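We close this part of the discussion by returning to an individual protein. The amino acid sequence and the backbone structure tokens for this protein are reproduced below:
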Amino acid sequence: MKNILIIFCVLFIGNNLFSQVLDIVQQTWYLRQVQLDNIQFYVPYGEIIELNFAGINPNYTVSTNGIENIFSANANFNNSEVTFSNSEVTSSNCTASNCDFENLYFYQFLSNQALEAKTFTYFYMVFSSGRKLFRITDTNGNRAEFTDQPLEEVDPVLFQTWYLHAMEADLGDTEYIADYDPPIAPTITINPDLSFTGIGSCNEFSGNFDYTEYPNDGLMLVPKNFDATTENCQHHSDFENYYFFHFTSNQPLRYIAGEDQSNGEGYFSFELMPGFTFIFFNYPVLSVPESEKKFFTIYPNPANEKLFIKTSENNLLISIADINGRTVISINNLVSNTIDISALKSGMYFITITSSEGKSTKKFIKT
């Protein structure tokens, strides 16, 4: 009986691996990043790098573009490993601005300058949303991550000057910039090439963003090349240190950005860790009336079936957006102070409520 169980387990594992390989080779994969020596190199903004398999088991081939050239090889899957052999690269002399990425992808990760064979372990995952992840890792721990969808273009609404209005800490009380005394006016301006400039409490800063996305995790801006002046701020230096930390941590910032097309008011927020959020609008901070700060609360949070709103206001305009800034629920005149969220997928959402007292945005989790 034990031998039968062992044979059954071996057959089950073998069939599962074979099924995974079929799924992998039938999918076009889009490179998101290459990690070499624990340093992340994201696909340069505006470039699309695809990886495709072809052929019939076990005689597969693999091809992937770089910036100007094509890498191709034979691909052999064996248990949880895949080996690229007989590699070739087209001979065009890459002269574009992003050719450094092609070189590290082709000659430091997929192979080497001699185009020798290389074996990787692979990881394949299908998320509950249907999105897919494919990762290959070499013996030194270097890896490349691919997803099943191309990276969408950055919404042009992101490219403007943003004024920091508020900060949230782990779904707790909101801290408003308008309450700072003496006043400060923190900003960030994001340009179409993803360079950025801004000011904290007293120091100016600049840098660049990489742009990426992970399945089920939303759009990301990854700060790099951060530089700032070094004045000793007379006031609110702790705030500035906290603000600047988000640009020096070398970690992705999950963000959303959107615009009310009826009046041009824009909204931008980012967070390094879930619950710790910086909230910007595209107009300067003047003052925030007490009534605007507290004119509504939401509960429970996290919520599953229904989200309740506690407020003394009437004629509420409700808008709920997902982490990518897409509006998923819109209500012109909320009557019952109850919103059915049962149809939403699990994840983080932003609810914006507009009343005669003004507009306010809060975050909630759908379980």
